[in-house]
TrEMBL record:
Keyword line: Magnesium, Metal-binding, Molybdenum, Molybdenum cofactor biosynthesis, Transferase
Protein name stated in the entry: Molybdopterin molybdenumtransferase
Domain MoaB/Mog: 178-317
Cofactor: Mg(2+)
Length: 401
């Protein structure tokens, strides 16, 4: 297969990928999920005319002119209303959130009163009618749509849903992403590598990226470089109902790179293998039964950069979320060489300068180096076939954080 451009690869990844079905979850589990249907208020808020201040509920006509002396005939607290009626020359002690009693049409705030020894009060400032009263339904009314379908349930949306009388919400199901690391050389994090071994560092980074984006993760561990072992892990991923199966390593052309063969033996239909990008060239993608399969390269930076570019949009699509890469313009702090036939994603730090953002590329871009990926907050995006650039030239950056 030939190298396909990055943009075409993304189009093929997203082709036919539709939001998942719905499920109902309690509010406490709904943060960050996507609302699957418009949400209608089940109640009116506030449900009654409520005081917005601590003070006295009075008749505006009595306090149009200060000073005015009023008899205090009772109290209305939040959760416990005053059952009677406020008559002329009367006041009811009231607190924030409490129902405004019948007969009263304005609130005299406590700071504008003085208490007399006999229990009566003096209004020391005049008040207009309707002051400090929140009318019933000010926020929303029963039957109104309070949240649109597709809304990402952020803190404010969750509180609004609760206020509107909902304890559970219909949300788009979270995709299940299975992760399979391949390689005889790998030991799990915390393990003691043998003389020719290294730690499998990719799975945890990819798992974090997927779960931060709203996916559930099934880590199927490390399988050896054997076609049948990889095939067995693929079957395990399918049996668990994975929506996306991510393999790590074994994507290239070496004698021990067997992911492609294992996918073939399991009947996968690959859409592409190899992209015109650096790092990440040997990435493969296709369908495996009902799942999508993303074969990421083993080099740690390649795997994570590919996951940023392809796994994140795929998860967003399944979750019914819009995915917008954070692309910005910056000025190069150092000259850069011409690119080859692939689009380059160059680890860099982007900082604010006097004329806007400044991008400083790391001098060594080896795709095994997690230290520079962790230090980078952006990737400079340089098109395939781009000529050399001088320091000070404009460039495009993809922000990572
Ligand atoms: N003759 C060619 N050789 C290579 C090519 C090529 O086009 N022709 N492409 C190179 C590129 S680009 C990449 S990227 C790598 C990708 O190789 P694989 O996907 O087959 O990955 P592996 O060979 O399995 O491993 C590469 C490297 O990464 C380490 N690795 C693997 N898995 C993990 C893991 N889970 N955690 C941490 N590190 C991992 C592995 O030990 C190797 O060092 O191929 C080039 N070769
Ligand atoms: O894609 Mo490889 O990622 O260039 O090292």
């Amino acid at each position: 297969m030939t190298l396909i451009p990055v943009d075409e690869a993304l189009e093929r990844v997203l082709e036919g990928l539709a939001p998942l079905d719905h499920e109902t979850v309690p509010l406490a589990e709904a943060a960050g999920r996507v609302l699957a249907a418009p949400l209608t208020a089940r109640r009116t808020q506030p449900p009654f005319d409520a005081s917005a201040m601590d003070g006295y509920a009075v008749r505006a006509a009595d306090v149009a002119q200060a000073p005015a002396v009023l008899a205090v005939i009772g109290e209305s607290a939040a959760g416990r209303r005053f059952a009677g009626k406020v008559g002329s020359g009367e006041a009811v002690r009231i607190f924030t959130g409490a129902p405004v009693p019948a007969g009263a049409d304005t609130i005299l705030i406590q700071e504008n009163t003085e208490r007399l020894e006999d229990g009566r009060i003096t209004a020391t400032a005049g008040v207009a009618a309707g002051r400090h009263i929140r009318r019933a339904g000010l926020d929303f009314r029963a039957g109104e749509t309070v949240l649109e379908q597709g809304r990402v349930l952020d803190p404010a949306a969750l509180s609004l849903a609760a206020a509107a009388g909902h304890a559970v919400l219909p949300v788009v199901r979270r995709p299940l992403v299975a992760i399979i690391a391949t390689g005889d050389e790998l030991v799990p994090p915390g393990g003691e590598p043998g003389p020719d071994q290294i730690v499998a560092s990719n799975s945890c980074g990819i798992a974090a990226l997927a779960s931060l984006d709203g996916a559930r993760v099934l880590d199927l561990g490390i399988v050896p470089d054997e076609r049948q072992a990889i095939a067995a892990a693929l079957r395990q991923a399918l049996a668990a109902g994975s929506d996306i199966v991510v393999t790590l390593g074994g994507a290239s052309v070496g004698d021990h790179d067997l992911v492609h063969q294992a996918l073939d033996s399991e009947g996968a239909r690959l859409s592409f293998w190899k992209i015109a990008m650096r790092p990440g060239k040997p990435m493969m993608y296709g369908r495996l039964e009902a799942a999508r399969v993303l074969g990421l390269p083993g080099n740690p930076v390649s795997a994570l950069v590919c996951a940023h570019l392809f796994l994140r949009p795929a998860i967003a699509r399944l979750c019914s979320r819009l995915f917008t890469p954070d692309l910005r313009q910056a000025e190069l702090a150092a000259p850069m060489e011409a690119t080859g036939g692939r689009r380059d994603y160059v680890r860099a730090t982007v900082t604010a300068g006097p004329r806007g953002l400044v991008a400083t590329p790391f001098q060594i871009q080896d795709s095994s180096m997690l230290s520079t990926l962790a230090a980078a907050n952006a990737l400079i995006v340089r098109e395939a076939g781009a000529p050399a650039s001088e320091a000070g030239a404009r460039c495009q950056v993809l922000m990572l954080r």
